[in-house]
Amino acid sequence: MKRSEFMVGREDFKKLTAAQLMETDVKTFSHDATWEEMAEAMTKGGFGSVPIVDANRKLLGIVSEQDLLFPLMEGKDLSKTTAGDIMTKNPVTVAKDAKAGDIINLLATYHLIRVPVIKGDKLAGIVARRDMLFGYLMATAKPPRWL
User: Which of 4, 5, 122, 135 could link 57 by a cystine bridge, Cβ 3.0 to 4.6 Å?
Assistant: First the structure.
């Protein structure tokens, strides 16, 4: 669920924050998740990366489709390859109060599709390029005539 789904226009897109734009229902995995579990979730879920968290939702890393491709191409035993083996530790993140323009710049600078949103060191959500576009459309939509 995204808070931007409830906007009815009249918002300044540049003032929107990650908290307003992010997806909060995020599929996560622990560091011992298997290659197969992550590959299946990403391909069936239609997303290109998954956050790796501990039991308290502390962000440990992120596994992308690219991270899954390396052990596949190297001929590793995929049944023994875990998130902890292949995750990017200390991934690029944004805070919940990061502004839309800063998020777009970060996504462009690092060539990212999505970025974890954190509160402290805990995962709060994910914001993707598509969320940015959706947020802009909702923020600038013409409100219904009765409003």
Answer: 122
Question: Where residue 31 sits, what CATH number does that domain have?
Answer: 3.10.580.10
Pairing of strands 59-64, 49-53: antiparallel
Q: Which pLDDT value is given to residue 139?
A: 87
Find how far residue 119's CA is from the centre of its chain: 14
Burial class from Cβ neighbours inside 10 Å (0-12, 13-18, 19+) for residue 10 reads: exposed
Asked whether residue 106 is assigned to any structural domain, the reply reads yes
* pTM metric for this prediction: 0.87
Asked if the structure places residue 66 within a domain, the reply is yes
Which residue is associated with the tokens 């501990």? 54
End-to-end CA, the chain: 24
* Count of domains observed in the chain: 1
Encoded tokens for 85: 């083996």
- What is the Cα–Cα distance from 71 to 76, expressed in whole angstroms? 5
- 131 residue type, one letter: D
